[in-house]
Amino acid sequence: MKSFALWSTGALLACMALAAIATSVRPKPLDEMVHEADLVVVATIEAVSMVDGKGRPITDRRARTGPGSDNRMWLTLRVQEVLFDRTEAEASSLQVPLWSMWHYELGTMQDDLTGTEGIFLLKGGAHEPVYPAGFQRDTQERLEIEELLGPRLDGR
Question: Relative to the CA of 58, which of 1, 102, 119, 140 has its CA 20 to 30 Å away?
Answer without folding.
Answer: 119
